[in-house]
Amino acid sequence: MNEPLFWLGLSILLVAVSLTALLVAAIPALQELARAARSAEKLFDTLSRELPPTLDAIRMTGLEITDLTDNVSDGVKSAGKVVKQVDHSLDSARKQAQNMQIGSRSIVVGFKVAWKTFTRNKSSRRSLDRLSNNSQGVYSFREREAIRQQKRNLADDAYNQPNTWKNPGEED
Fold this sequence. Notes:
Elements: H1 4-119, H2 133-136, H3 141-160
């Protein structure tokens, strides 16, 4: 058993048998690998045909969504401006109505004072103002304030009195 050639031959035979067994076992695996490669090739062909149009459609959809978003944003801004204009118009109308109310009150008070002044006796009308400087002299500060207060009281009385003048042809 010390024959080296015998052992060398046996080793070569065992290696050959092992390689044959490996090749027999690898053939079905290699066939499946070939089938998987063909399937992958078909998948890649399908992807190369279908993917670019799909990606273009997705890109176009994104652009359309962006345009719609911009349009909606512009519409919201426009609606906001319209609301501000309407609010400003309402404020302006409110101020004009208040000014009209104040103006009409002033006119009514003016007419009342004019009517009261017109219907008052001539002797009591502006008697304090018609005094000459020679007959009365120079007013002191307290006298001037008293005269001003009397004039204010007359104006306040005219403002606070109810409407007493009537339209022509109107009876009690």
